């Protein structure tokens, strides 16, 4: 079991100080896996005793055991990310903003691919297929991946509801949700309060809950049955949603191939409507 799975399994037992250490490790794993306990505690802004208690909460006898696991599970992606980060440094030196930002998106995609649990991804796919109704909430910048996920799930004939404040009361939209439904929240720092509240409400109703966020320690994770952690850092005033959209694309593709015949029939019905209503431009050759 890797570090992120351990955190998800024990998240309800972690104190705020222990979460602070875990957040630091997740954000700086390329440094943390080599740090002594005193270095790690100083960088994370806590006492050494907090680090020791974290290791025991996660099931290790001591810090060396956790550090060995961190090195074993993260060493493969370390070399990949380090190469990407080196490219970013060159872009910064050259003043090439286009290269710099695209390279950072590549880094976000690489980190997401390496860290995302295949087990959690598969559970998300199973929930999307099994759900009677699917409710998706992504506010502010997170509305972009939420819109893509909801739109294309509708193409697959799923009963999907994109929660958009301002178009009817949010809580009325969620009226009657239960165990057969699925609520997915998408949010990144600084997390939107309403998204967290919606997931908490869904959990209280016994509804399946999923989250797409930046970390297994995100506020969304506390109410979630599964979390898909996505890297979103960008040296800009905005977050990067490239990896979030890529994960949404992967979920949509995985759902579509589970029942090919149903998918084809659903898309044929859509195409018929689009053609009759002339939704898309038609080239002269096809007329």
Please provide a written account of the structure.
This protein is an alpha/beta fold. The protein is built from 13 helices and five strands. It has helices at residues 3-10, 16-27, 29-32, 37-44, 48-57, 63-94, 97-115, 118-130, 143-155, 170-173, 193-204, 242-258, 260-276; strands spanning 134-138, 160-162, 182-186, 208-213, 226-229. Helix 11 (193-204) links the parallel strand 3 and strand 4 (208-213). Helix 2 packs across helix 4 (37-44), helix 4 (37-44) packs across helix 5 (48-57) and helix 6 (63-94) runs antiparallel to helix 7 (97-115). The radius of gyration is 21 Å and the shape is globular.
Can you give the helix content as a percent range?
A: 55-70%
Number of strands: 5
Name the helix and strand elements from N-terminus to C-terminus, one letter apiece.
HHHHHHHHEHEHEHEEHH
Alpha carbon gap, first and last residue: 58 Å
In percent, how much strand structure appears in the residues?
Answer: 5-15%
CATH architecture of the largest domain: 3-Layer(aba) Sandwich
Task: List low-confidence stretches.
Answer: none
Mean pLDDT across every amino acid position: 85
Radius of gyration: 21 Å
Question: Sheet with the most strands?
Answer: 5 strands, parallel
What is the approximate shape?
A: globular
CATH-derived topology of the largest domain: Rossmann fold
Order of strands in the sheet with the most strands? 2-1-3-4-5
